[in-house]
Design brief:
- The structure is a single chain.
- The protein is of the alpha+beta class.
- It has eight helices and 20 strands.
- A hairpin with a 7-residue loop joins strand 7 and strand 8.
- The termini are far apart.
C-alpha cells in the first residue's frame, strides 16, 4: 500500500509539473520584455525618481496627528435614562459624555520636536498624540491662531527628529509641480501629486488670507500637511478643499509657507499672534453710499462705530467717515484694512486718511494690541 502511495504521489508530481510547464508556455508571450521599457533615462523617469527622493526625504518628517475631546452626550435616551435598564446592566447613572476622536497631519520644523499644523486640527481638544516614524508621542499645544489657521505643537519626549526644509512661497508660479503628503481618512503618509492651479486666492475666508490653489488630491486628514515643490521644499500648509460632498474634486488650498512662518515665530514667542488694533466697526462701501458722500468709487471702508476710548476714537475718527488710505497705501476693503493694521507693530503710529464732508482728512493713530 505504501508503494502504491509513492507511485501515485510521484505520478501526481509529474502531472503537476506538466501543468506548470503548460501554463508557463501559455504565459511566455506576455512575459516578454515590453518594447517600451527603457533605461530609465527619459524626463518622465527623472521626475518619477524625484518623487521617490522627496518621499524618502519626508517620510520621517510628516507626522500623523490624533486628537481626542470629551463631548457631552446630551439629549434624551429612552434606554440610558431608564433606571431599570441601567440597573439591569449594572450602570449607576446615564453616561454624560462621549469621546470624539479626530485626525490630521503635521510636519516637523525642528530637531527638538516642534510641529506645524492647522489650528482647526487641534482646536478645542483635550489631548494630542503624534506618530513619527511608527513611534507615538504626546504633544503639547504651544499656541494656535484661528485667523491664519496655524498651530504650533511640541513633542513631549526625547528624540532627534527630522525637520523639513522651508521654501519661498513668493516664488511659487501657476503650473509648478507640487506634492502633498498627509493622512487622508487615516491612510498614513499618502503621497499625491499635482500642480499649482492658482496663487493669491483670497476667497477662502472673510479675512482675505492668501492661499495657494492646487489640484493635488487633498482630503479629510490632509489638513496641516506640507505642500512640497520639486526641490524638496515646503511651500505651503494644506488647509482645505472646495467640495460639495466632502471628497476631493481637484480644488485644494494651502497656506503660503512665508505666512505660516511669521505666525509660527509669534506662537513660539508668545503662544499667540499679536495683531494691531485701532478700534472701529466697519462696513463695505456701496455705490449708492459712495455717490452720496461724493466719492468716485467704492474703494475704502465705512466706519459704522468706534470703540469708546479706543485708538481711532481718541484720534478723532468718527462714525460715517470713510477710511481710504493707511500710510498712503490705498484701502480697498475691510480685509485689506484688517491685514494692514494687523501687521503693524504694537505701539507704532500710523497715518489714516479718511473722507469726511467731501474732503480728505489725516489722523495719527497709535496701534494697540487686538484684545
Amino acid at each position: 500500500m505504501a508503494k502504491l502511495f509513492k507511485i501515485i504521489f510521484f505520478i501526481s508530481i509529474v502531472i503537476c509539473s506538466g501543468n506548470l510547464m503548460s501554463q508557463s508556455s501559455f504565459l511566455s508571450e506576455a512575459e516578454k520584455k515590453s518594447p517600451l521599457k527603457k533605461n530609465n533615462k527619459s524626463s518622465a523617469y527623472e521626475l518619477q525618481n524625484t518623487f521617490h527622493e522627496i518621499y524618502n526625504q519626508y517620510k520621517d518628517s510628516v507626522v500623523f496627528i490624533s486628537t481626542e475631546k470629551t463631548v457631552n452626550a446630551g439629549g434624551y435616551n429612552p434606554f440610558m435614562d431608564d433606571p431599570v435598564f441601567r440597573e439591569f446592566f449594572g450602570m449607576k447613572e446615564a453616561p454624560k459624555a462621549r469621546k470624539d476622536r479626530g485626525l490630521g497631519t503635521g510636519f516637523i520644523i525642528s530637531s527638538d520636536g516642534y510641529i506645524c499644523t492647522n489650528c482647526h486640527v487641534v482646536q478645542n481638544v483635550d489631548s494630542v498624540t503624534v506618530t513619527v516614524s511608527d513611534k507615538t508621542y504626546k504633544a503639547e499645544i504651544v499656541g494656535m491662531d484661528k485667523i491664519t489657521d496655524i498651530a504650533l505643537l511640541k513633542i513631549q519626549g526625547k528624540g532627534n527628529f527630522k525637520p523639513i526644509y522651508f521654501g519661498n512661497s513668493e516664488e511659487v508660479k501657476v503650473g509648478d509641480f507640487v506634492i502633498a503628503i498627509g493622512n487622508p481618512f487615516g491612510l498614513d503618509k499618502t503621497f499625491t501629486t499635482g500642480v499649482v492651479s492658482g496663487t493669491a486666492r483670497r476667497q477662502l475666508d472673510e479675512m482675505g488670507n492668501s492661499h495657494i490653489q492646487t489640484d493635488a488630491a487633498i482630503n479629510q486628514g490632509n489638513s496641516g500637511g506640507p505642500l512640497i515643490n520639486l526641490d524638496g521644499e515646503v511651500i505651503g500648509v494644506n488647509r482645505a478643499i472646495l467640495s460639495g460632498a466632502g471628497g476631493n474634486i481637484g480644488i485644494g488650498f494651502a497656506i503660503p509657507i512665508n505666512n505660516a512662518k511669521e505666525t509660527i515665530i509669534e506662537l513660539k514667542k508668545y503662544g499667540k499672534v499679536k495683531r494691531g488694533f485701532i478700534g472701529i466697526g466697519m462696513s463695505p462701501l456701496s455705490e449708492e453710499t459712495a455717490a452720496k458722500l461724493g466719492l468716485k468709487n467704492t474703494q475704502g471702508v465705512l466706519v459704522v462705530s468706534t470703540v469708546k476710548n479706543g485708538p481711532a476714537a481718541r484720534s478723532g475718527i468718527k462714525e460715517g467717515d470713510v477710511i481710504i488710505k493707511i500710510d498712503n497705501t490705498p484701502v480697498n476693503d475691510g480685509a485689506a484694512l484688517t491685514n494692514i493694521i494687523g501687521s503693524k507693530q504694537i505701539g507704532s503710529i500710523v497715518k489714516i486718511t479718511a473722507w469726511r464732508n467731501k474732503t480728505s482728512m489725516n489722523f495719527q493713530i497709535t496701534v494697540q494690541e487686538r484684545p
